[in-house]
Design brief:
Length: 237
């Protein structure tokens, strides 16, 4: 029987890459998306829509998931990334980041407490900003730090049933709106000094899914950016 994985934010960018990768590996993939999914139809793909900034939508998603399991793996990948200066309503800005990065993973994991297969694995996609925060994105950084700390708590709570690990990506994949000056500045702060692409995160997920002795671990996939001396927090987004 094919293994089954649930990926939040699985319809675009990194999530799409992860979904397509595990479909190609023969997994049954349940891919969550918010507003639109860029995934093509596939016999092993189930797409579920939910706005993870809305607790009512999270509740509906949790109810759907209980009928779609059991799951061999879950990747908490969904994210929102808005600078604090762009927030028109500060409490709403805080709630959005907390709901997407903390409330949704907590509620989803609770909903799946009886829906794990033997030797299951959960991965949370955090950020190097969880440990080296950027004042321009303080609310985002706090939410990602919350996700990371909660995930390590889950490694304790689910020990013996589910292995739980965290991946801290750095800027492995640039977006179209990132100009050349931005790209070069970011790469200058990396020890590897090259754009690694989403494949770097996919490889990390593959390792953690298969590494039976690894749980409660935070893995940095950032080209060595974490250990560079300093980085500029003022460059354009």
């Amino acid at each position: 029987m094919a293994k089954r994985i649930f990926i939040t934010g699985g319809g675009r960018r990194l999530g799409r890459t992860l979904s397509e990768h595990y479909l190609a590996q023969g997994w049954q993939v349940v891919a969550h998306y918010n507003t639109r999914s860029e995934l093509e139809a596939h016999p092993n793909l189930t797409s579920v829509k939910a706005d993870l900034s809305d607790v009512r939508d999270i509740e509906k998603l949790c109810n759907e998931l209980q009928a779609l399991g059991p799951f061999d793996a879950v990747i908490h990948n969904a994210s929102c990334f808005v600078p604090d200066a762009a927030a028109a309503d500060l409490p709403e800005h805080i709630a959005m980041h907390q709901n997407v990065h903390v409330t949704a993973p907590v509620m989803i994991t609770e909903a799946l407490k009886e829906a794990w297969t033997e030797a299951a694995c959960m991965i949370s996609i955090s950020d190097i900003y969880a440990d080296i925060p950027n004042q321009r994105f303080a609310v985002y950084c706090a939410a990602k730090a919350g996700l990371q700390n909660w995930s390590l708590s889950m490694a304790q709570r689910l020990a013996g049933r589910v292995r739980v690990n965290v991946i801290q990506p750095g800027p492995v994949q640039f977006l179209p709106e990132h100009d050349e000056a931005y790209r070069q500045r970011v790469l200058s702060q990396s020890l590897i000094g090259e754009e690694l692409g989403y494949g770097a995160i996919v490889s990390a997920c593959d390792y953690l899914l298969s590494a039976r002795a690894v749980t409660g671990t935070v893995m940095r996939v950032d080209g060595g950016r974490f250990v560079t001396n300093r980085y500029d927090q003022t460059f354009s987004s």
